[in-house]
Predict the 3D structure of the following.
Amino acid sequence: MERTLGLMGGAGPLPGLVAARARARGWRVVAFAFDGAAEMGLHADRVVPSRITEVAPVLATLAEEHVTAAVLVGRFPMPDVLRADVGGADAAARALDARAGSRADARLVGVVIATLAELGVEVLDQRLFLGDLLAPAGCWTARRPTPAEWEQVRQGLALAHRLAEAGVGQTV
């Protein structure tokens, strides 16, 4: 049975790259091209122009195309999300917004993932398609950090996690 991947593509070059790599691995790719998405048409079997305020057509196409897995990739600029007119959005988009209770990116993504799961669509990790582009584990400097420097690294990471949990990381 053919595997169909729903690629939720935002801005930047990564959605096109994921589409190409997915097809090379035997996936049929249905790409949902949100504002700013480019180059997916060269690599996807079908491209569906999409808007964050029009979720119903995306959900219908997922079912129509028998999408079993999805990947969210590319930039979805928060100013666009925050400025989106919920009053002019379709019922499915309003329901997602209400269910999230906030337009904080983590809350919205969590609701999108839960909604996809309810439809039987598994959200895949981008690393499945982009993992070879990540830097390998290990020391990247000419010398290893000293114990005091490692302590500073741990403190910085702890602070970064607290800022992310508070939703103010990009503000800082």
Observations:
- The CA atoms of residues 134 and 140 lie 13 Å apart.
- The helical segments are 14-24, 56-64, 78-83, 91-100, 105-118, 127-130, 147-166.
- The beta strands are 4-9, 28-33, 46-49, 69-73, 122-123.
